[in-house]
Design brief:
With 270 residues, the protein is an alpha+beta fold. It is built from five helices and eight strands, in the order αααββααββββββ. It has a domain of 142 residues: endopeptidase fold (from Nostoc punctiforme), CATH 3.90.1720.10.
Length: 270
């Protein structure tokens, strides 16, 4: 063995033959490609002049934007219109509620006023009847005394006799005898017996003669209930504070004291 065999060598290790050949081939191929490109380059190189046209979007975009703006404006107008309509409806509802409340208030006030007027009229009527009863009681006493000293004569006596003869007959609306009467039918028939032709109805009979005071009655005077010219009932004063009349369907023709149903006034025909 050599005396230097154990010392490592300072030379680079040799590459293997296959690797060296491969690298050389690759390098040579690259260089050849570059050379060919360099030779052909100046003759074939031309500038690229093709222009690519992009689609025009301006027209369609404008139409779309305009349509969108118009739709937005229409929506705004619709919302504004709806707001006005809602406000008008609210205002109308408030006005209707207020008007209804006012109408109810007026109706209630009118009802109260009518009730008060009715109560006042009824009170006045009661007072009037009470006064009439007092007057009739006094005049009745006077009439009784007068009747005791003198009785009806002539035509008045005939009228009184006729009405007294019908006491107990039936009351029938529109009745003119001989066995059923209404109030004015009885009075008309009684005066017809003495040749006096009276109107048929109570209203006209209450103004057929001279108005006399209830405190100055004479036998044969016509009594009426209600106003002169608007009376709803009539009868005949027979003296002694009594009258005869066809009252109603329940009582028929009756003789009663004046206090039983105080009349409103009287007329003298005889």
């Amino acid at each position: 063995m050599s005396h230097t065999a154990h010392i490592p060598s300072h030379r680079k290790p040799r590459r293997s033959a296959p690797k060296t050949a491969l690298r050389a081939g690759v390098a040579g191929g690259v260089l050849s490609t570059i050379a060919v490109a360099g030779a052909a380059g100046p003759a074939q190189a031309e500038p690229v002049t093709q222009t690519i046209e992009m689609p025009t979007l301006t027209s369609g975009l404008s139409t779309s934007v305009a349509a969108s703006a118009e739709a937005t404006q229409q929506v705004a107008l619709d919302l504004e219109t709806q707001a006005h309509e809602d406000a008008a409806a609210t205002s109308a509802a408030k006005a209707a509620t207020k008007a209804k409340a006012e109408a109810v208030r007026k109706a209630e006030a009118k009802k109260k006023a009518e009730a008060a007027a009715k109560a006042k009229a009824e009170a006045a009527l009661r007072a009037s009847r009470s006064e009439a009863r007092t007057t009739l009681s006094a005049s009745g006493s006077t009439a009784v005394a007068s009747s005791s000293s003198s009785s009806a004569t002539g035509s008045a006596a005939s009228v009184i006799a006729f009405v007294k003869a019908q006491v107990g007959d039936a009351y029938v609306s529109g009745g003119t005898g001989p066995n059923s009467w209404d109030c004015s039918g009885l009075v008309q028939a009684a005066f017809r017996t003495v040749g006096v032709d009276l109107p048929r109805v109570s209203q006209a009979q209450s103004t057929a003669g001279t108005q006399v005071s209830l405190s100055n009655l004479q036998p044969g005077d016509i009594l009426y209930w209600g106003g002169a010219g608007s009376a709803y009932h009539v009868g005949v004063y027979v003296g002694g504070g009594q009258f005869v009349g066809a009252q109603n369907s329940s009582t028929g023709v009756v003789q009663r004291p004046l206090s039983y149903d105080p009349p409103s006034g009287a007329v003298r025909v005889l």
